[in-house]
């Protein structure tokens, strides 16, 4: 991993991943790309940046060649709730983008990372401590693209020898860039609203458990997996990873410890609630722990303390 191309670099994961990669591998060695180029943005101004529409395979290969990259981290994708609103577009972006990124990796002999998700599971998947290898019949377009993506990455490894690697991320919580259109976004919004208004209306119903992780753990996991000894990897793509599982009452109770007047009520969104109900309550990350030493540092209490402190430092109140 010496020269790295990142797609979707301005997204929730990309923003923090690019910053960390530039610290570790050198700013000039991390080529950030996204479909837009805002001014006054740390990712745009902190090193090489190119506008790239991931559905344009020719442009993807040209940019990869221009910078002579040896690693591609493909993050550009639509999240679950928007994908459900625009399923055809989601297929085109999530699968079209992935196959283009894999083709660029094949042509330039790159190492490759792309995330899968807890969305790759469905209602017939065992709900608790969901195993690494299990039934995957998702009922959302997001899930369909994630399972297909897992299979496609396995295929590119077996057929073409591309060094593909990936994880199934749970809901990711961060204070830097907002997520866009996911089902787990409530667990980010709640911190902003707690500080701004002292109250939050949850679109996810009481008692709905989902896996979550704080962004620093997610970024560490990506780098650790990419640096892992290939001979130790039995799964390669789509490792289950998680740091915590909670339902809305639990995150609200944790916030209340810091903001005692905080109140939460519910106005359940049937679309996102429907999606959440098809996902696991908790997944089993033991394959990732055994094969490449995955470990999360943040639990709900430690994350909540840090989130509130960092958001306050950003001037959110
Ligand atoms: N956080 C994502 C979503 O809610 C799940 O991968 O869509």
Automatic annotation (TrEMBL):
Name this protein carries in UniProt: Putative epimerase/dehydratase
Family membership: Belongs to the NAD(P)-dependent epimerase/dehydratase family.
GO biological process: L-threonine catabolic process
MF term (GO), any: L-threonine 3-dehydrogenase activity
Top-level taxon in the UniProt lineage: Bacteria
Family annotation (CDD domains): TDH_SDR_e (cd05272)
Domain (NAD-dependent epimerase/dehydratase) ranges: 4-241
């Amino acid at each position: 991993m010496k020269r790295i191309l990142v797609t979707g670099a301005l997204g929730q994961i990309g923003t923090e991943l690019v910053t960390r990669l530039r610290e570790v591998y050198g700013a000039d060695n991390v080529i950030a790309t996204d479909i837009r180029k805002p001014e006054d943005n740390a990712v745009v101004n902190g090193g090489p940046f190119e506008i790239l529409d991931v559905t344009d395979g020719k442009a993807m290969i040209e940019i990869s060649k221009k910078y002579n990259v040896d690693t591609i981290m493909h993050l550009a994708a639509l999240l679950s709730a928007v994908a459900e609103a625009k399923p055809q577009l989601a297929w085109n972006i999530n699968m079209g983008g992935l196959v283009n990124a894999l083709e660029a990796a094949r042509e330039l002999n790159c190492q490759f990372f792309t995330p899968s998700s807890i969305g790759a599971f469905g209602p017939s998947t065992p709900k608790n401590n969901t195993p690494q290898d299990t039934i995957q019949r998702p009922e959302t377009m997001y899930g369909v693209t994630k399972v297909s993506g897992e299979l496609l990455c396995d295929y590119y490894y077996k057929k073409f020898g591309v060094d593909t690697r990936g994880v199934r991320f749970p809901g990711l919580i961060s204070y830097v860039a907002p997520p866009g259109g996911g089902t787990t976004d409530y667990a980010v919004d709640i911190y902003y609203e707690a500080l701004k208004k002292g109250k939050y209306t949850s679109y996810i119903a009481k008692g709905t458990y989902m896996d979550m992780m704080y962004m620093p753990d997610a970024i560490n996991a990506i780098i650790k997996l990419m640096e892992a000894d290939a001979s130790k990897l039995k799964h390669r793509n789509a490792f289950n990873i998680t740091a915590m599982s909670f339902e809305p009452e639990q995150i609200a109770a944790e916030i209340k410890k810091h903001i005692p007047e905080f109140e939460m009520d519910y106005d359940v969104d049937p679309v996102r609630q429907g999606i959440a109900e098809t996902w696991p309550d908790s997944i089993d990350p033991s394959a990732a722990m055994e094969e490449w030493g995955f470990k999360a540092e943040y639990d709900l209490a430690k994350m909540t303390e840090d989130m509130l402190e960092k958001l306050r430092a950003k001037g959110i109140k």
